[in-house]
Amino acid sequence: DSFTDETKGVQARTQLKLDVMLQPVYEVEPALKLDKVFFRFRVGYDAIYDLTDRYDDVPRDRSTDSRFDLERNDLQYTVDLFEAYADIDWDVDGWYSNLRLGRQIIQWGESGLFNVINVVNPQDLSILRNFDNPEDLAMPIWMGRLDVTTPAVGIFNELNFQVCYIPDNRPTVLGIDISPGVASPYSLADGAFGETRQNDESSKLTDPQWALRAGFSAASLRAYFYWYNGYQNGP
After folding, report:
1. pLDDT digits (tens, 9 = 90+) for 70-84
2. How far apart are the first and last CA of the chain?
3. Considering only 73-77, 86-90, 92-96, 104-108, which range has the smallest mean pLDDT?
4. Which of 117, 105, 113, 88 has the alpha carbon at shortest distance from 215?
5. Distance (Å, rounded) from C-alpha 85 to C-alpha 216?
6. Distance, C-alpha 94 to centroid of its chain
C-alpha cells in the first residue's frame, strides 16, 4: 500500500466566469448618467461525479417544494447568470450618489477569519467551505442599493450612507446531506442533523428586507455603523 492508495479526491471542479460590461460614452458628461450595465455569467463542471461512484446515491431529483434544495446535477453542473445590474450615478458639487439596481453582492466589513456583520448576501457552501474567499462564497440577490457620499463636513473628510431595499431572500446553500450515510462532497454529512432543509421564507416587493449603513472618515480614521432587518439566512 502507498499514500496514494489512501487518498480520496472530493472535488475536480473547473469553473469559468465571464464578465460583460456595457459603458456609455458621453460627449458632455451629465450630472445624472447611466454609468454602466454589468453581467457576470458562471459555468462550472465537477468531474468527481464521473471519476468515482462514491456519490452515486446522491439523488438527482430531490422532489421537494423548496426553491433551494439542491440535486446532484446542481453540484456537478453550473450554468447561471450570476450577477446582473445597472449603475446610475449623480455627481454635483461634491455630492456623489450611486444607485445600483439588479442582482448583486454587497460585502460589509473586513476580516481575516470571522466577519459577523457581512450578513446581507447569503453564502453558497455547496461547492466551497466557510474559510474560502468571501467574494467567492457570497450569493448575489436582487436588490436596489443607494450609496450617497457628501463633501467635507466640519472635521469629517466625508459622510457616506447606504440604503438597500431587498425584495429577495435566499438561505445559505448547503451541500446535499441525506441520512444515513449519503452525502455530497461538501455537506454537513452528519446523521444527527437528519435531512437538511433550507429556509424557504420569501420576501417580496411589499414586504422587503432592509439594510442601512452609515459611515464617516476623519483624518486617518474610517468608521461604519450597520443596521439590517431581514431573514436569518443560516440553515
Report:
1. 888 888 998 999 999
2. 40
3. 73-77
4. 117
5. 27
6. 31
